[in-house]
Sequence to fold (199 residues):
Amino acid sequence: MLRKHPSKDYYTTLARKLGLLSRAAFKLQYIQKRYGFLKPGDKVIILGSAPGGMAQLAARYVGPRGLVVAVDVKPQDFKIADNVVSIIADVFDPEAMGKIREALKGELADKLISDLAPNLTGIREVDMPRQLGLVEAALRIAKELVRKGGSLYIKLFESPEVKSIEDRLRLSFQRVKRIVPTATRKHSSEVFLLALDKK
Fold:
């Protein structure tokens, strides 16, 4: 069963202490330390970016020559960093692709991060299809807007479908790894797929 969890925990508290906008930043920090995921100058798309913790940290990693396109259905009407462009869009909206493309100024992204998640009901039969729908939307955007040699970091919920998505990614990427960041809540079924070097 997928559960909602209280907001107060170690990583939430640590995020506040470090001036980070959310605990999600540590999920990015984990792969950055292990794999050097983001490079200075990278153009990065972050889907499900609110309240901004991942975008805030990504902006530091890519530096002033890089660009972070932060996409969420929730307004992010505050300045995260000078190299972050915030877009209010639903990934299921056909216009979302165009808005992201415009923010990238016609260029392709080097990386795509998806932290998309549905509003959880706690009912697996409801939550799982919703999450898989978000994953498919993220993969469509990645197919169109991530360059050859680029990489993905996408959130899923643990399920039999994860293996099939993993297998699909192996057809398009040189390496695919299943990741559970240390910042994942103890009872969460969250898992990330890290897909490196798009073919």
About this structure: Strands lie at 43-47, 67-72, 84-88, 109-114, 146-157, 173-179, 190-198. The chain has a mean pLDDT of 88.
